[in-house]
Structure formats: C-alpha cells, structure tokens
C-alpha cells in the first residue's frame, strides 16, 4: 500500500470525456501512480474508471480529491464527500483536500476543518490536507487539528513563482507542498535557461522544471493529454540537476502568479 504521497503525480484538470479517459489510461500505463482530481473538475468519474480499466490493484494508485469551496458548510460537506466517493466508485480516497479556504470566513474555518478531520476518522480518506492556504490559515489549521494533521498544502508553484516565504515556512514545520500548475501551463518550454539546461541533459525544459521542484522537496502534479509529454515529464524522477543548475532555476522566480481568483486569500508571496 502507498503510505506516502508519490512525489510525481498527474493533474487531471480538463481530462473529461473519452479523450480525458484515454489520457489517464496512458498515464497509468506509463507508470503514473498518483492522480489529482477535485469535485469541481468533473474528472472524478474518469479517475475511478481509469483505475478500474487499468487492472491495477486499488492500493497501487494514490487518489486525491478536493472539497469545493461551495461545499464547505456543515450541511454540504459530508454529503459532498460521499458523492465524490460514489462518483469515483471508491470506498475511500488517499488524500482529501480543502480546495480553497472559505472567502472571508463566510463558512466558519472551524466547521470545515473539523468536517475534514471527521472524514478521515470515518475512513473516507487516509490523509487530509489543504490547498491554496497561506501561512496564517496553516497556523490556524495546526492549532485546531494538531501539528501533524495535514499531509500537504497544494499551491501554485513553478519556476516563475517559487513562493519563498511559504516554502520556507512549510519547510520549518516539515509540511510538504504540492506544486500545482508546475509547468506554468506549458510556458516553461519557452524559457531559455530551462532550454539550455534541458539540452545538456537530453531532456525537455518541462522535465527540468519538474526535477527542480522535486529537488526543492515539493510534490509535483503536471498535466498532459499527450502521451509523448506524459512520458517526457516522468523522466524528471531520474533527472539530477547540478547545484549550479538549481541556482540558475532559482533565479527565474519572478512572482508570476497565474491563478488568482477573487476568492483568493491574502498570499504570502
Ligand atoms: N488546487 C488548485 O487550486 C489547482 C489549481 C490549478 C491546477 N491544479 C492541479 O494541477 C494540475 C496541473 O496544472 P495545470 O494542468 O493547470 O498546468 P500544468 O501542469 O502546469 O501545464 C499543463 C499544460 O502544459 C502542457 N505540457 C505538459 N507537459 C508538457 C511538456 N513536456 N512540454 C510542453 N508542454 C507540456 C500541457 O499540454 P499537453 O496536454 O499538450 O501536453 C498543458 O497545456 C491540474 O491538472 C490540477 O490537477 C490545482
């Protein structure tokens, strides 16, 4: 059984319909063993179906889903988790996240964080965590649920948004960050520094970006609908960057946040 979060997972945003299912099946065939879905992506059904069609034992695939910010209230939280499990066709997920904190505490923080802990206690998930949580929210969560309660905080991180303040805090409390949109939606492919490093290793700039994030201690969940890109991205697991290459990628940070909806909390970086 997978007891920790596999460091390189697959984002499933947008992988709906037959085409999406084919991409998920290709990923499992290539060796991906961690699928990241959410109530709001419309991909929970495909994730469950891909696992069943792959023939892989359930315990070999790590599944994350996220409770939408529209389902955080006491009345909606638990039914939404039951609905996720039904849609996935699974008895439990491996990781359940709060997708976004409630905007301006419209739903009391204690209500949904307590409900998250209860989902774990009920065996609906093995691990719990959060997403899009700044430091202040992480501190509140730890005070409420305990210092070791959270398995990860999933946030936007890529070479152009390295979030040093949040990164250093997370390190200080030994909380792994999961880097979403780790390829900056594919734009890492156009960066000259990444291209040069990639050429030296015979890999793609995307693999360099992922290897850098893994070296920083992050979990990564790149997405792709292309078999060639899925395969190329997996190569990041075996790619060891030299210290000077890591330094060069660190210098690419320019605070470029791509996902910043109105409901966002006040970011640390
Ligand atoms: N928690 C949250 O609030 C949150 C927010 C956003 C995303 N996420 C999660 O993070 C996952 C990843 O984020 P994302 O899908 O937005 O962005 P991403 O992984 O940074 O980028 C995906 C894009 O990059 C392209 N790409 C993939 N591999 C490539 C390669 N080797 N070379 C060139 N281009 C490549 C893909 O195109 P092709 O399909 O053509 O390969 C796709 O257009 C999502 O699927 C979702 O699971 C979470």
TrEMBL record:
Cited Gene3D superfamilies: NADP-dependent oxidoreductase domain (3.20.20.100)
Top-level taxon in the UniProt lineage: Bacteria
Key words, A-Z: NADP, Oxidoreductase
MF-aspect GO terms: methylglyoxal reductase (NADPH) (acetol producing) activity
Domain NADP-dependent oxidoreductase: 8-253
Protein family membership: Belongs to the aldo/keto reductase family.
Family annotation (SUPFAM superfamilies): NAD(P)-linked oxidoreductase
InterPro entries hit by this protein: AKR, Aldo/ket_reductase_CS, NAD(P)_OxRdtase_dom_sf, NADP_OxRdtase_dom
The species this protein was found in: Aureimonas jatrophae
GO biological process: methylglyoxal catabolic process
UniProt site positions, description: Lowers pKa of active site Tyr: 66
Protein name: 2,5-diketo-D-gluconate reductase B
Pfam families registered for this protein in UniProt: Aldo_ket_red
Residues holding substrate: 99
Bilayer-spanning residue ranges: none
Active site positions: 41
């Amino acid at each position: 059984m997978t007891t920790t979060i596999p460091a390189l997972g697959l984002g499933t945003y947008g992988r709906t319909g037959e085409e999406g299912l084919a991409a998920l099946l290709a990923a499992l065939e290539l060796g991906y063993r961690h699928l990241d879905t959410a109530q709001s992506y419309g991909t929970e059904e495909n994730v469950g179906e891909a696992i069943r069609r792959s023939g892989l034992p359930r315990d070999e695939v790590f599944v994350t889903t996220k409770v939408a910010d529209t389902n955080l209230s006491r009345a909606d939280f638990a039914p939404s988790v039951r609905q996720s499990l039904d849609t996935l066709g699974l008895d439990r997920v491996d990781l359940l996240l709060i997708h976004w904190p409630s905007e301006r505490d419209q739903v009391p923080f204690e209500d949904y964080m307590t409900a998250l802990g209860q989902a774990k206690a009920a065996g609906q998930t093995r691990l719990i965590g959060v997403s899009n949580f700044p430091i202040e929210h992480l501190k509140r969560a730890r005070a409420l649920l305990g210092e070791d309660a959270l398995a990860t905080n999933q946030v936007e991180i890529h070479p152009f948004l390295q979030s040093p303040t949040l990164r250093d805090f997370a390190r200080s409390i030994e909380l792994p960050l999961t880097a979403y949109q780790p390829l900056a939606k594919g734009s890492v492919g156009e960066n000259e520094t990444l291209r040069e490093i990639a050429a030296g290793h015979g890999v793609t700039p995307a693999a360099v970006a992922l290897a850098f994030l893994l070296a920083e201690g992050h979990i990564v969940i790149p997405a792709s609908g292309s078999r060639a890109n899925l395969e190329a991205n997996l190569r990041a697991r075996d790619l060891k960057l030299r210290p000077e290459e890591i330094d060069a990628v660190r210098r690419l940070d320019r605070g470029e946040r791509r996902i910043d909806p109105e409901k966002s909390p006040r970011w640390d970086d």
